[in-house]
Amino acid sequence: MDITGVVAIISVFGCVPLIIFLVHRHKERKALIEKGMDISLLQGEKKCSTLESLKYGILLIGLAAGILVGNILDAYTRLNEEVSYFSMIFLFGGLALLIFYSIAKKQQETE
Question: Is Membrane there in the keyword field (predicted)?
Answer without folding.
Answer: yes
